[in-house]
Write a structure and sequence with these properties.
Number of strands: 17
Low-confidence stretches: 202-208
Largest sheet: 5 strands, antiparallel
Mean pLDDT: 80
Radius of gyration: 45 Å
Structural class: alpha+beta
Strand content: 25-35%
Number of helices: 5
Number of domains: 3
Helix content: 25-40%
Shape: rod-shaped
Distance between the termini: 143 Å
Length: 303
Amino acid sequence: MANITGTVVDANDIPLPNVSLLLVGGGGAPQVTLSGINGSYSFVGPAVGNYKVSAIRGRNVIEQLAQIASGQTTDTVVDFKMITTPTRLRLIDLFNRFVLLKYGQYLFLAVIGWIFFYCLIVGSLPELSLAKLNNIETARGAITYLVAVTTISMAAILMLAAIMTGGKDLDKRFTLGKEILTLLIGILGTIIGFYYGSSDKSQASGTTDSLRVDTVAFSATGRQVLVSGQVSGGSRPYVYAITATPKGIVTSITDKFSANGRVRDTLSVLDTTKGRSVTFVLKGRDGNNASFTWQSKPFVVNQ
């Protein structure tokens, strides 16, 4: 019984193991084998007939003809020399590999990328500026938004990778991506907790340090009235006004600026009638446009 045997070597006559060999013909089913560590292979006991033996290594395929004659007792030897030829990278190969074979993946990534670009770059960032980022609330909001969009995009990409990709290292790549996503979620949670926690503290502190007018004192000397007092709480600076009723007895103060909330003004007495009394009203707004009002008891301007 004759066999079909041979060896597979490279251009330097070095044996090539693990080369696929295909035997077709003789009226039987195709046979497949691999070359051994010394490059040898063997198809045992093929029937009488004509055959085609193919050696396949990557994209390099070599075909040779072989024959088993009736009554043949010696092996038919078919040797292969695999000469690797450099392959040119064609645009059609790139198209088939990265578009046709994975069109769904890249289409989905394109959609995610466009949403990210439009929402973040087109929709929000043009409204920001370095001057606005000096504001703590604006900076915190921008950072929270950026990390949130990045985290959601990362989750979508991981979901797509788990569904549409494969390979021996899929588990490693997915595990690494999951660790990165977990890290982003932790950062996002920390930022959100810090942001809203700080906001609650700010509101609480604002409630405790409310806007108020401390004791205001008046003293009359001759035809003048000295007003002194203090505005506390709220947000500096302050703008205030002092008026008196009935009108026409003393002068008034309008839109007076105070950086530290101190009130100290001198009003002139216009009516010299003895025993005249007036009621003073101090009102104004702080830096956050919150209003305050204080009214005195009747005060005699002319003793």
